[in-house]
Amino acid sequence: MLVIGNGESRKNINITLYDDDRIGCNAIHRDLFVNHLVCVDRRMVKEALDNNVTSHIYTRPDWANDYKGVLTVPELPYNGTERWDEPFQWGSGPYAVLLAAKLDTIIKLVGFDLNSKTKTVNNIYKDTSGYDAGTKRPVDPRYWIHQIGKVFSLYKKCKFTIYNDAEWTLPNAWKYPNVSLDNITNL
Fold first, then answer.
1. What pLDDT, in 10s, does the model give residues 114-138?
2. How far is residue 101 from each of residues 19, 131, 143, measured CA to CA in Å?
3. Helix ranges (DSSP H) in the chain
């Protein structure tokens, strides 16, 4: 299973070369077919439906009934006490990783950059409809790090490999025996 985030590290790889089942986030359908599309932003769900995306589309349970044929993201596998543990605080990326853990045991992640190499947004779709301007400050990744780390810690039987640039470092919250880091050129 290949889980595709929208970080800029993936912009120079041809994901169509990989036969894996794919889970993608939000606007990825503009460029690539994915088997499962996670959209926890109403605008992205509407865009996918308006564009007749044939992927399984997942959104928040509160919104799924508003859209014909849309599935719900998986329920969180834990109860937390902090704001970042609330289901509404989870974004498409963490939900995509959770969905992958529910569907498979060998999971590759690409495009989960977390941080920007510059002081601006790190997203392959910046400056397009539904996304921030490329000149804006990047999103603080602490929620994503915590949430994806929870998936890694709770799904011990899954093997997660994160592919990224050589200088990218694995966050401490992701350091588990079932998680490894590899260079994006080895994907």
1. 988 889 999 999 999 999 999 999 8
2. 18, 27, 19
3. 42-50, 61-64, 92-103, 142-154
- Cα–Cα distance, 57 to 76 (Å, whole number): 18
Q: What is the model's pLDDT at position 46? A: 95
Task: For residue 38, give both structure tokens.
Answer: 């996670």
In whole angstroms, what separates CA 177 from the centre of its chain?
A: 21
Joined tokens for residue 76: 């969180």
Residue 37 has a CB neighbour count (10 Å cut-off) of 28
Query: How is residue 97 annotated by DSSP?
Result: H
Render pLDDT for 83-112 as a digit per residue (tens, 0 to 9).
999 999 999 999 999 999 999 999 999 999
Q: What phi, psi does 12 have (nearest 5°)?
A: -105, 15
